[in-house]
């Protein structure tokens, strides 16, 4: 419910859905949709670690993108060339661009910024996953005929299923 409400909030938050503010909100809505869909899929697949991990990365990405949006839309020095802060509807300050070319340049810069943050989040997610897998799921020692020890990699699904914190476990705390 929270992700659906957040999606509706950002859909109706923008007064005109155009310009730089509309582009920032459109991209934020896509991140919220990923969180919403991963939550809905986790109802169908409640033991899926990857869905929970994607949702967690999505929530982190939402927070980062909200911070970036705040800085980029409310700091006049970060306005793209040809755009500046002006009075908009209902006396609100908004970033308005002087011409069509400046608006397209500004939207392109927003898309590039979003792409860089997206790539950064994917790298962060993969590195965190590999570190956690290295620390907690590396290997176990098994004896074979009491003579030689062999190292065997744990099965990933078994590791993820065994170490997952379920919502019911959190309620008991």
Automatic annotation (TrEMBL):
Subcellular location, record wording? Membrane
Judging by the UniProt lineage, the source's domain of life is: Eukaryota
Entry keyword set? Membrane, Transmembrane, Transmembrane helix
Which spans are transmembrane here?
26-45, 57-75, 108-132
Predominant subcellular localization, coarse grouping: membrane
> Do you know which InterPro entries this protein is assigned to?
DUF716 (IPR006904)
List the membrane topology term(s). Multi-pass membrane protein
Q: Spell out the family assignment given in the record's similarity comment.
A: Belongs to the TMEM45 family.
- The name on file for this protein is Transmembrane protein
Q: Which organism is it from?
A: Spinacia oleracea (Spinach)
């Amino acid at each position: 419910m929270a992700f659906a409400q957040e999606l509706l909030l950002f859909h109706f938050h923008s007064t005109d859905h155009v310009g730089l503010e509309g582009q920032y909100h459109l991209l934020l809505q896509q991140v919220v949709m990923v969180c919403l869909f991963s939550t809905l899929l986790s109802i169908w697949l409640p033991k899926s670690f990857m869905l929970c991990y994607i949702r967690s990365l999505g929530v982190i990405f939402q927070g980062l993108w909200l911070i970036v949006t705040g800085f980029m839309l409310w700091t006049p020095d970060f306005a793209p060339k040809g755009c500046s802060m002006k009075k908009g509807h209902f006396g609100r300050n908004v970033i308005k661009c002087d011409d069509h070319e400046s608006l397209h340049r500004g939207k392109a810069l927003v898309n590039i910024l979003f792409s860089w943050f997206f790539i950064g989040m994917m790298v962060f997610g993969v590195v965190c996953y590999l570190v956690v897998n290295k620390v907690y799921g590396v290997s176990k020692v098994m004896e074979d005929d009491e003579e030689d020890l062999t190292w065997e990699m744990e099965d990933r699904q078994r590791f993820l299923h065994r170490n997952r914190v379920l919502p019911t476990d959190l309620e008991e705390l």
